Amino acid sequence: MKIVIAGAGEVGSHLAKLLSREEQDIMVLDADQAKLASLDANYNLMTLRGNPISFNSLQNAGVEKCDLFIAVTPDETQNVLACSMAKSIGAQRTVARIDNFEFMSQQNRDYFTRLGVNALIYPELLAAQEIITALRRSWARHWFELHDGELIIAGVKLRSNARIIGMQLKEFAMMEHNFHVAAIKRHHDTIIPRGDDIIKDNDILYFATTRDHVDELLDICGKTSKKIRKLLIMGGSRIAIRLAALAGDEFKIKIIDTNINTCRMLPEKCPDCNIVHGDARDIDVLREEGIDDTDAFVALSNSSETNILACLTAKEFGVHKTIAEVEDLQFISEAEGLNIGTVINKKLLASSKIFQLLLDMDVSSSKCLALTDAEVAEIEAKPDSKITRDAVKNLRLPHGMTIAAMIRDGKGMLVNGNTHIQAGDHIVVFCLSGLIHKVEKLFN
Questions:
Q1: How many helices (H) and strands (E) does the chain have?
Q2: Distance separating alpha carbons of residues 35 and 37, to the nearest angstrom
Q3: pLDDT tens-digit readout, 122-148
């Protein structure tokens, strides 16, 4: 598949890196040669210095023959115009990153379709939706639902009270339960586990299960489900505004911001929220605003370091759930190792959403990329493919991958060594980054 990415900023660069591992034909277009040089030197892709809203640059990038054109520059107007121009000269499908929620409304979508924009990505909306999911499942670090909830992938951080601490995976597998441990996040590494791996304190385990057995998962992990009502947000950002609009009825929200002009604007945007002018990094301010009686704390300032530290402070006050926006990718692994709950990153969420759009073009696979160094793929088994030739335990699967679960005839089920995969089954696979193209060969 030929893909052209306009914009070599943080989102475009991260997306290009991920797609290059998939052995796609990638061209990155940007006016800044310095941004392109790093991508060109380190990844399997092509770069071109040029203007995303120049017909000459688009034609030089081969847009007229591309299957997907993605515009993710910092300027939403430029993104929309670039998509319109790309569509007019032959791009099959276009995606534009935007910063205006008004563009997402259903009554306005037809306008963008007529312009030639097939899909719009609003990262702040994706982040707000992710935060709401984390608040509703406050005991989990990550939560994915596949096929309308038929399969659940839950990332859970284990503490010393979890009764499976110290078990080998093969011991856990012999217990009577309805879970499959698909991956383990330990310190800075993601492990695709084998039977001899031991479950340790502070591991983040990624379980595959079905919706009927979620309560059992809480029991074996020593977790309790707490309903979140009172929510304190640091930073009146666009994410905070979207969060308030989507879930203002569900949570009692208080927003603290250091900028007086932002505080004056927020009541119009968030009429049901309590707005406070102050510095949420100040312990006295937190006490004054009732941190002791808060169920959840969400840090949405412009600084990843500030958000991490603020969540650590909230935890010291006994806040049940904390969520930090961490936009610096190099801090994510470190943040996940700390006691700060859920980490939100707009780049990962936007990349994941764009990968889901690829599903519309290639129905063989769908990918959730909300993990930094691992991939979750849902792949359909084709007739006579290697994956259908024997029971799973006899397939000699590549190191670095595991089959977590599958959908058969619309119903979710777990996979064990005796499972014999059939053509037409949709298989959920965990693998380390960069291995997905090897995995897909088993299914074709």
A1: 15, 22
A2: 6
A3: 999 999 999 999 999 999 988 888 777
